[in-house]
Specification:
Radius of gyration: 54 Å
Structural class: alpha+beta
Helix content: over 70%
Strand order of the largest sheet: 3-8-4-5-6-7
Largest sheet: 6 strands, antiparallel
Number of helices: 6
Length: 403
């Protein structure tokens, strides 16, 4: 009988050894795939940050181009109004010039007629003026009148000529001012064209960035999903490894008992009874049903979901104690939503004896142990629910076991 038990133990041990090797291979593969996906995710997140930074810089450049374009358009409107005003002034100046030329021509023709008449009839008219004069003073007056006519015509012609010159100068000035304004208008129109082309180019770049960002975010989502899937596989493998470890221990105990002398049978029975009583006492701390491994595996399903302070939703967001509370609630266990209160639930175990499903308590933080020196926890608002090392920067203050 002893030989049969020993043989069975050896068979179980060999099977367990094979299972352990298979589990180790799967675990190594899962961790390798997780690390590869995590590295790719980190790289894509870095690309996303760079694209967003470039988008922000480009948006500032587009805003500056828009501002410059508005200034140019305002200047163009102003110059357009000024050109219209110069056109009005030019039209008036040209009309005044035409009138001045006409007056000059009329005065010139009138003066020529009077000069010709006085020239043709100058001697007789002058003689008549002398003969008809009453006295010498009258003679002087008549001569003076002739002189005044000449002076009047000459002065009037000079005045018209001066007026014509002034108006002609005004026309030239207005034309030059209008030409300057039109040159400025052409310059602003060229600036407008350049700015609009620049804005179109930068808008096209922005569209490219948006496309790159969408692609990067899609890749990040895929890598994040891969990380979550591999974390779940890792948790399952660690839980399975822990089960194999417990089974191997039980097989070893059975083999040892079979080699004990029959004289100690009653003592062993008493010890078994005592152990059974102790085991029943330990399990009575839980009002639900489940195993530590199933708790660890279930908790890993929510890796990648958000951290929300005060939250208890495993999908929409939870904080550290809310996460632990909701995971155990799935197995019918009611726990407090407080990291401090969780240090007193279940029964205490040492850090060297931690098993999957144990609640690991830190100062102001809690997590669920999943085996292999790893925990799953609602870490922080920036990282959400994740898997990490049990000693991630905080000292363990307590380990509590529910199942």
């Amino acid at each position: 009988m002893k030989k049969k038990i020993i043989a069975m133990g050896l068979v179980v041990a060999m099977a367990l050894s094979g299972t352990q090797m298979a589990n180790a291979t799967s675990l190594s593969k899962a961790r390798s795939q997780k690390n590869e996906a995590q590295n790719k995710l980190d790289s894509v997140n870095s690309q996303i940050a760079e694209i967003e930074s470039q988008q922000s810089s480009l948006k500032s450049e587009i805003d500056k181009v828009d501002s410059d374009l508005v200034d140019v358009l305002v200047s163009l409107d102003l110059i357009s109004d000024q050109i219209d005003q110069k056109k009005v002034e030019l039209a008036q100046a040209e009309a005044d010039l035409a009138a001045a030329k006409e007056k000059e021509a009329e005065q010139y023709d009138s003066m020529k007629e009077r000069i010709r008449y006085m020239y043709e009839n100058g001697d007789s008219s002058f003689l008549e003026a002398l003969v008809g004069a009453q006295n010498f003073a009258d003679v002087l007056n008549k001569v003076e009148n002739f002189s005044k006519v000449y002076d009047y015509d000459r002065n009037l012609l000079v005045e018209y000529q001066n007026t014509k010159t002034e108006v002609a100068n005004l026309v030239t000035q207005v034309e030059e001012e209008k030409k300057d304004l039109e040159e400025n208008q052409a310059t602003y129109q060229e600036q407008q064209k350049n700015l609009e082309e620049m804005k179109a180019q930068k808008s096209s770049q922005m569209a490219d960035f948006e496309s790159q960002l969408a692609q990067a975010q899609s890749l990040a989502s895929q890598y994040k999903q891969t990380v979550a899937e591999q974390n779940a596989i890792i948790a399952e493998q660690l839980a399975a490894a822990q089960t194999v470890k417990v089974t191997a221990g039980a097989s070893s105990v059975a083999s040892t008992k079979s080699n004990s002398s029959s004289s100690s049978s009653s003592s062993n029975k008493k010890s078994d009874s005592s152990n059974s009583s102790s085991s029943d006492s330990g399990s009575s701390s839980s009002s639900g049903s489940g195993t530590g491994s199933s708790v660890a595996s279930y908790g890993c399903q929510f890796v990648g979901n958000p951290y929300v302070w005060g939250g208890e939703s495993l999908t929409n967001g939870a904080d550290c104690s809310g996460f632990v509370k909701s995971v155990y609630a799935h197995f019918g266990v009611s726990l407090p939503h407080s990291s401090g209160a969780l240090t007193g639930v279940g029964r205490a175990v040492s850090t060297s004896d931690m098993q999957p499903g144990d609640i690991v308590c830190y100062s102001g933080h809690v997590a669920i142990y999943i085996g292999g020196g790893q925990i799953v926890h609602a870490s922080s608002p920036s990282t959400g629910i994740k898997i990490g090392p049990v000693n991630y920067g905080k000292s363990v203050v307590a380990v509590r076991r529910i199942f």
